[in-house]
Design brief:
Shape: globular
Largest sheet: none
Structural class: mainly alpha
Helix content: 55-70%
Order of helices and strands: HHHHHHHHHHHH
Distance between the termini: 50 Å
Number of domains: 1
Radius of gyration: 21 Å
Number of strands: 0
Number of helices: 12
Strand content: under 5%
């Protein structure tokens, strides 16, 4: 079954590239980027498959087990636009393949100096020859670095000015994972691509790692009243666990107290929150958003924008003038 699906994907990939992408490349005089375009076509198809899978599986689940009543369907449509831009766009593939030759050059210099670059596969000879073990090991290591990236975005004021757009969704839903400022997305894609290349992740493996992570994160953001039980909650981030992170005044707004405050920064595996004492296993399914969105006296009715471009512009304004208006 899996082999059949892989073969089908490869056939569609080849057809789409030969029939649509390649002719466009040569028509526009961009033939030198043929290899990158071939890889980009794979990312495009993976993104399409993700969106279809999420719609088929998670939309019915949201209807069956809603955590809250969606009051702003327009905001959900904007979230879908973010998902389409991120998962069908060129950010990730562009960053990875621009950095790949730079890492190769650095590797060559290290070889000339008699130094061997670090490779995660070499840590556990024999065991890491198993594809599934290698995949999970890469996923685990990348998630460790993603935890610290995410935690940093809640501590550094200008960075929170960008990342707060993600938290401003008061009707969190399955498309909300990609509700991010484009600059924040770009920085994260560079960061994760550098880490992946540094530990020796092959390009084909990287596609699958990103896809698996994105699907799980869409589940976490889904408007579903779902948790994984006592043990499951400590093994994998659930919708309830991540909803606490998005909770108003609970999961992400205590950074102003002079320390790395907040809870549940883990992207996939709660073990990082447990190790670094940021876990909160609350059983609540409370409202999501940011405190300063609330009307006075609880908040200040801060505007995070209704449309895509307004949200992007206001994010830049928060980034550059954040200290004048704390959340």
């Amino acid at each position: 079954m899996i082999a059949t699906l892989v073969d089908l994907f490869a056939q569609v990939h080849g057809w789409l590239f030969q029939s649509v992408i390649a002719p466009f490349i040569y028509l526009t005089g961009l033939g030198e980027f043929t290899e990158q375009a071939f890889e980009g076509t794979e990312w495009l198809l993976v993104g399409l498959c993700e969106i279809v899978l999420l719609f088929v599986l998670l939309r019915p689940l949201e209807a069956l087990l809603p955590a809250q009543v969606i009051t702003d369907k327009g905001a959900r449509r904007i979230d879908f636009l973010y998902t389409a831009i991120h998962r069908l766009g060129a950010f990730t593939v562009a960053v990875f393949f621009v950095l790949d030759p730079l890492i190769d050059q650095l590797t060559g210099v290290l070889h000339l100096e008699g130094l061997q670059p670090f490779n995660l596969d070499s840590l556990w000879p024999g065991v890491t020859d198993l594809p599934l073990v290698t995949f999970l090991l890469y996923l685990f290591v990348l998630d460790f670095f993603d935890y610290w990236y995410h935690r940093g975005s809640h501590q550094i004021h200008w960075w929170w000015g960008l990342h707060s757009l993600h938290h401003s969704q008061q009707d969190m839903n399955l498309w909300s994972d990609n509700r991010n400022h484009l600059l924040d997305d770009f920085m994260r894609d560079i960061y994760m691509a550098v880490i992946a290349l540094a530990i020796g992740v092959p390009p084909g493996q990287y596609v699958l790692l990103v896809a698996a992570s994105r699907i799980l994160q869409s589940l976490q953001h889904a408007n579903v009243k779902l948790y994984f039980g006592w043990l499951g909650e400590r093994l994998l981030v659930s919708p309830r666990y991540h909803r606490v992170h998005h909770g108003i005044g609970i999961g992400h707004e205590s950074y102003g107290k002079g320390s790395l405050g907040g809870h549940n920064f883990a992207v996939l595996f709660p073990v990082w929150d447990i190790l670094f004492r940021t876990a909160n296993f609350s059983e609540s399914f409370g409202p999501t958003g940011i405190r300063d969105q609330l009307p006075a006296p609880a908040g200040s009715s801060r505007d995070y924008g209704r449309g895509f471009w307004a949200q992007q512009w206001l994010g830049l304004k928060r980034m550059t003038g954040f200290d004048r208006h704390h959340s």
